[in-house]
Design brief:
Elements (H helix, E strand, L loop, with lengths): L1 H29 L5 H39 L2 H10 L5 H24 L3 H25 L21 H20 L7 H5 L26
Helix pairs in contact: 2-4, 2-6, 3-4, 4-5, 5-6
Length: about 220
């Protein structure tokens, strides 16, 4: 009887060990690099690593766009005022004010975007300014005005059917893409924001001591 019990106990331990071995192998297989969990974690980590670089490209594109359109207007304030006047939107008293201020606002947005200083605010202001331009260009076709937008310099009257309002609107919508991205993900590589306001390391939570309640009724006697 004793030998039989020992054999049964040995078999039971062996079976339990075998079962544990199967379970551990299944867990290792489930957490291996080829599984969906491991692949999903790796892809998320790669995407998180790429985000600051994507934001850097968006910053440079947005800044280069503003510099490209503002530089020709800096030395041609009278021509820019004539382009603004052709839109027939602003009162005559505000045309010169807007025409003189516009290239410097665009210059500031371009330099700040390239430097990465106040990235989200720059992206918001850029998006608002681009939406203003889109609305102004769309209103030209609705009001039957036939001019060039003068976005990169002087504009003027054109013949009927020679306008390119649709292309101008699509172009500005394309410029909205980097602005929208930076509103969503403003943190980028090589930015003044990161240099002036570095991220603080996360603070580890302080463990809360667990209170133990004494057992009711005391110890029981046998």
């Amino acid at each position: 009887m004793t030998a039989e019990r020992g054999t049964a106990a040995t078999n039971g331990k062996g079976g339990a060990a075998g079962g544990n071995g199967v379970k551990s192998k299944s867990k290792q297989a489930a957490s291996g690099p080829g599984t969906g969990i491991g692949a999903g974690t790796e892809s998320q980590s790669a995407f998180a690593t790429a985000l600051p670089w994507i934001s850097l490209v968006a910053r440079l594109l947005l800044g280069a766009m503003w510099l490209f359109y503002c530089l020709p207007k800096l030395g041609a304030s009278d021509a820019n005022a004539a382009s603004v006047r052709n839109f027939q939107i602003l009162p005559s008293g505000l045309v010169n004010v807007f025409a003189y201020a516009q290239p410097y606002v665009e210059l500031a947005l371009g330099l700040l975007a390239i430097a990465g200083l106040g990235t989200r605010l720059v992206a918001v202001l850029s998006a608002l300014l681009l939406l203003t331009y889109i609305g102004g260009i769309a209103s030209l076709g609705a009001r039957g005005i036939h001019i060039t937008c003068g976005c990169g310099g002087a504009g003027g009257q054109v013949a009927v059917g020679k306008t390119r309002y649709t292309l101008d609107i699509l172009r500005d919508i394309l410029y909205l893409v980097p602005a929208a991205w930076l509103i969503w993900k403003p943190k980028s590589r090589f930015s003044a924001d990161a240099a002036l306001l570095p991220e603080l390391p996360p603070v580890a939570p302080v463990p809360t001591p667990r209170r133990t309640t004494p057992a009711k009724g005391g110890s029981s006697r046998r």
